[in-house]
């Protein structure tokens, strides 16, 4: 197959179910989403390819609009990247689109905003076909109490109290631009967008809001935890399998496709 005289940078969108993977990041002795994606792209490129992602996800976390980029000397059009890579990917990972981009594009550092969704099934009976894809919470939750706690978390704050103890980020200050709690029947969705996230930040926010929703903590507790800047003051970390990496926002100059609107069910 033809090769180019200089590398082409390619951006792509990846969708995956994280239930059977040890997170996004490539690992020596465990199956990862990155490992599967790199193997598939490398087969189509006929050369070893390393991908850069917009945001790593933990074991069991899913992706709807995960963005990556890679550099390649192999000349392929968008159709052949899409068809070829998906041929080699397992059934629970899909390449959604690819685009040639300029060399200044970076999946991680060019990102202006990332969005996550946390999905809760709040009923006495555990899920069957959705096992590993949503968080089952059998104790009744009050979505109105959860919504009342949200304003304290909006804006730019030090989120040290909402990150994992092993988080390696040097800057705990993040701007939460939107945080909504919606519900329908037994379903509750938390949607959160920010300029960046700390390790376990969304899951720790979900854990605090769920405790408030149970009535075990006052609505003011979310803000009290935030102001403490102390992780030990927070609640439990919510399970991973209810979390979805939804989308990434970039400058319009890169002309990337919009991430399809996610189904309310998810």
Residue windows where pLDDT falls under 50 for at least 5 positions: none
The total strand number stands at 10
Helix content: 10-25%
CATH superfamily of the largest domain: Pseudouridine synthase I, catalytic domain, C-terminal subdomain
β-strand percent reads 25-35%
> C-alpha Rg, in Å?
19 Å
Total domain count: 2
Subunit organisation of the chains: single chain
Q: Might you state the CATH topology name of the largest domain? A: Alpha-Beta Plaits
Q: Would you identify the CATH architecture of the largest domain?
A: 2-Layer Sandwich
- Provide the residue-averaged pLDDT: 94
The global form is: globular
Could you walk me through the main structural features you see in this protein, from its secondary elements to its overall organization?
The protein is an alpha+beta fold. The chain has two domains: 3-110, Alpha-Beta Plaits; 113-245, Pseudouridine synthase I, catalytic domain, C-terminal subdomain (Alpha-Beta Plaits). Helix content is 20%, strand content 30%. The chain contains five helices and ten strands, in the order βαββαβββαβββααβ. Strands 1, 2, 3, 4, 5, 6, 7, 8, 9 and 10 form a ten-stranded mixed sheet that branches. α1 (33-45) crosses α2 and α3 (143-149) packs across α4. It is globular and about 60 Å long.
């Amino acid at each position: 197959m033809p090769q180019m005289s200089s590398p082409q940078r390619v951006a792509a969108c990846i969708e995956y179910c994280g239930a059977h993977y040890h997170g996004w990041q490539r690992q020596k002795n465990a199956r990862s989403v990155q490992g599967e994606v790199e193997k598939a792209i490398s087969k189509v490129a006929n050369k070893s390819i390393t991908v850069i992602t917009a945001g790593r996800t933990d074991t069991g976390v899913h992706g709807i609009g995960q963005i990556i980029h890679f550099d390649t000397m192999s000349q392929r059009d968008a159709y052949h990247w899409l068809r070829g890579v998906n041929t080699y990917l397992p059934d629970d990972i899909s390449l959604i689109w690819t685009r040639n981009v300029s060399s200044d594009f970076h999946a991680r550092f060019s990102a202006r905003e990332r969005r996550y969704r946390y999905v809760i099934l709040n009923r006495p009976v555990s899920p069957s076909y959705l096992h590993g894809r949503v968080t089952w919470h059998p104790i009744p939750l009050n979505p109105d109490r959860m919504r009342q706690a949200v304003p304290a978390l909006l804006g730019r704050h030090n989120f040290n109290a909402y990150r994992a103890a092993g988080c390696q980020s040097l800057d705990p200050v993040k701007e939460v631009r939107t945080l909504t709690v919606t519900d329908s029947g037994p379903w509750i969705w938390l949607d959160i967008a920010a300029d960046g996230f700390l390790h376990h930040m969304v899951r720790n926010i979900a854990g605090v809001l769920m405790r408030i929703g149970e009535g075990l903590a006052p609505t003011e507790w979310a803000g009290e935890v935030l102001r403490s800047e102390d992780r030990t003051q927070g609640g439990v970390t919510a399970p991973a399998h209810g979390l979805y990496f939804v989308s990434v926002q970039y400058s319009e100059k890169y002309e990337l496709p919009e991430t399809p609107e996610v189904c309310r069910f998810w």
